[in-house]
Amino acid sequence: RKALGREVVPHTTRLPPPRVSSCCSVLRRPWSVRPQAQLRCYSSAAVCSSPIPEITSKFPEITSYDELYKFSVNQPDAFWGALGEQLLQWQRPFSTVTQHDLSTSTFSWFHDGTLNAAVNCVDRHAEHHPDRVALIWEKDEPGTEQRITYRELQSEVEKVAGVLQQCGVKKGDRVAIYLPVSPIAVATMLACARIGAVHSVVFAGFSASALASRIRDAGAKVVVTADSSKRGGRVIELQKVTREAVALCQDIEYVLVAQHSGAPLQLGHKELDLQQAMASITGSAPPSEQGGEDPLFLLYTSGSTGQPKGLVHTTAGYLLYTAITHRLVFDYQPGDVFGCVADIGWITGHSYVVYGPLMNGATTVLFESSPIYPDPGRYWETVQRLRITQFYGAPTALRLLLRYGDEFVKKYDRSSLRVLGSVGEPINPEAWRWYHEVVGDRRCTVVDTWWQSETGGIMLSPRPSAPDAPVKEAHPMRPMLGMTPLLCDAEGHQLHDVEASGALCIAGVWPGIARTIHGDHKRYQDTYFSPYPGFYFSGDGAMRDSEGNYHITGRMDDVINVTGHRLGTAEVEDVMMEHVDVSETAVVGCPHPVKGETVFAFVVLKEQVSSSIEDISKQLRADVKKHIASYAVPEFLLVTRGLPKTRSGKVMRRLLRQIAKGDHDDLGDISTLADPSVVSDILDKFLKMK
Ligand code: PRX
């Protein structure tokens, strides 16, 4: 990888282009950034008029939202300390709110307090409201949902915890979870928390080798899976994939298999029947007393280089941050049914399917199906049947659904909805308006929420805010309380003009931030704190309008976002480079009207190859599917005689991105290329490929 070299792309090149090419409609960016005046503002339902009584009752001098925001950023100890005292249940109270050292990128929140995450998410609610529904499991077939109360969830958590202990899992041990969105998955996450183990949920769409590399990196000795699951009517063979993965991981001692399909389990080497083992557990061990900074979970996410990184989230700060953002951004009220349709394999599932809602004692929906199963009305039929009050999903699904027309929405009663959330990628104005006007009947507040696996919870969102503050379409707009976003230019200077565009950074620290990368603190420092010293660097570019509203323009690094899934282009290149016939590759993202971005691979073959270009292309696609996942498979694969490189040998990725986008009219200065003729070769092949 080093030998190939990577050009340092000034961030401004990642900002949306002023125009789009007319070459190919499929490649056309589905949204260009509109002149600001064309984006509308809406004054929607007033929410959060008194957002935090825990603060305002203690600090009565705060009488407006503006004052509250200023207080939260100017007095973080007082702000987060008051919330930490009141929103978390402590075994031993904390005396220090936060300590941080930017020079070593170390941060701690409530480190000398002790608590247990499962007690906070389940036991305390089970004590006061045992019969309140904690989970509504929306299975693949509509109308087959199951409700699980807090009392039932507590019992499940205790039993799984008992089984894990019988398998020798102790405090600090890592447990891999490869399960579909289901109550047993939630119970397993919380069972780990109950005994102080660290869960590492791996998205159940990842391949065996992706699962294996995550198990090995985490050093897990136990993996929890299911026999198989169904999504959109399609069977996913989880146990089979887990077996293949475990064959690559010598340290795995036990594979706990949950029966999910309904068929009798077939157990093999190292495998135990999870439900049978749970049935033999009587009584429960007391919950482990965890330090505020003890790790709660690892979550692997893609970076611009090398292997996915295992972000480490710790206990108290993460719980507090997800609880407060869930409550304030979505105007959560007791009795609501919160419907976040993310998979638990991603951070959105961790924070807003599991931890945030359960911290608030909410009823949370576990959506195991697909937006178009059995038809494109599935989301809205579910909203009607479950009386969902807040719906939280990804723009890629909205873009897909709006193509099927409004009838699939309108035939269902959506009067229960109050807030509609969007997450994972930029939402284009057309999808935003459809969400607001068709799904929400212009009644609901639409919150475009920007955040990341690293931030733990929502960072920018139109709410909370002053109750009458307008909502600007397709903009995450405002910082969450306690947050100070800022923009920097390519030289690393902060941009002080209100209207600006640059690298999106955050000043100060917040409780939800991931504390490190498992086993590689240097990578953590280098990625997030070295590029703009003194600030956290998000990796995203953003624009700020004259009123100070933020709009995200996309990644500035070699990370792309395919159907809302984050993918490092280097991961795909690494897989393709393993092929015997491949000499070089470069992978870029290219705009796609539904997926947001899609994978475009440029491949250079060796002089002597073993088969035809068609066969090699097929093999490369199969390799990527096998080693990563289906969403990472290149949609476009162009075999070329060379890659455009500078004389110093760096691949000019900017040029490849432009070509992939179909934006050929002005390729900029290519005179510095070692061999400019490769560009015409690539262009020729590109046009033939279309
Ligand atoms: O590029 C941003 C995009 O998703 C990235 C984070 O991906 P991940 O860690 O997988 O977390 C996704 C769910 C929080 C960001 O760096 N992104 C996320 N939300 C938005 C977004 N881009 C634009 N607008 C958003 N609302």
From TrEMBL:
Residues 571-650 form the AMP-binding enzyme C-terminal domain. Keywords: ATP-binding, Ligase, Nucleotide-binding. It catalyses: acetate + ATP + CoA = acetyl-CoA + AMP + diphosphate. It comes from the Eukaryota. The keyword RNA-binding does not apply. Signal peptide: none annotated. InterPro entries: Ac_CoA_lig (IPR011904), ACAS_N (IPR032387), AMP-bd_C (IPR025110), AMP-bd_C_sf (IPR045851), AMP-binding_CS (IPR020845), AMP-dep_synth/lig_dom (IPR000873), ANL_N_sf (IPR042099). One of its GO terms (cellular component) is mitochondrion. Residues 123-509 form the AMP-dependent synthetase/ligase domain. Its EC number is 6.2.1.1. GO terms for biological process: acetyl-CoA biosynthetic process from acetate. Residues 65-121 form the Acetyl-coenzyme A synthetase N-terminal domain. One of its GO terms (molecular function) is AMP binding. Belongs to the ATP-dependent AMP-binding enzyme family. This is Acetyl-coenzyme A synthetase.
